[in-house]
Known about the structure:
The protein is an alpha+beta fold. It folds into two domains: 8-165, no CATH class; 173-282, CATH 2.40.50.1020. The chain is built from eight helices and eleven strands. The strands form three sheets. Strands 6-5-4-8-7 form a five-stranded antiparallel sheet, with helices on both faces. A hairpin with a 6-residue loop joins strand 5 and strand 6. It is elongated and about 80 Å long. The protein starts with 7 loop residues before the first helix and ends with a helix.
Amino acid sequence: MWGSPRRIGDWWQGLGLSGAFTGTNGKVYLIGLAALTVFIACFDSISVWNDLHFRPDFGLAQPVVWEVTSAVGFVAYSTIAWAALQIAPLEQRPWWRTALIHASAVPVYWVLHVGTFVLLRKVIYALAGYHYAYHHIGAEIGFEFFKDVFAYFLMVTIYWVVARLMREPAVPVETGGMFTIRDGTHIVRVRMSDILAVSSAGNYVEFTLRDGRRPLMRTPLSAIETELSPRGFVRVHRSWLVNTAQMTGLKPQGSGDYAVELGELTVPLSRRFPEALARLKSS
């Protein structure tokens, strides 16, 4: 819709998953996953002990099968919480959008989790010569839903805490007419005039440079906006900053929206940013 044909990486950016499993962010995911695995192992061990204590007629095999199959789904589908957190970080505004994305992810996790452990139990029971039935399905489904709501937000919380603990100081350094971008371990120094726009990519921002490069940097777009606003950049969309000095055209798109042209790059200007529109018109 905007500008030149989109690359595969652009679709990841649109979903907020650009760079989600690489570099520091990949380490956050793995450490969070390890923490969740340890948590569920401890929790399930306690649950098995309780079953043996209060329902000795169950024996050991059944509680172990129940808890292990549930744990498999818990760990496997924690990636849903991780992906939702990349698309909608807890600090991201507007708050209603963040809440809506996570509220939508909960039933997805719940259906996959319950479906997986029921299927695994049926297979294991069948191999042992027994039949597994999900008794009182209405009550059990409701109980599992509330458990999975808690589990989902536990996963989000653990990933969020790990990310904050591992957050790198990523304040851009600007010296004279140059700007320093830290793309992982690679340092990119560019002229301010060579930065056409900056866009949000989950926990990262992506700089679009005049020469076609698109280095990523782990920092919120709001931090970049604070740094670059005094230097001629303006927020035109919740996900975009543009360099006003590099604007080559401004086209109305209907319903109060515009398209900002920066050479071959086209960026959306939302009607929700009237001050940006006024500034670009006067540039």
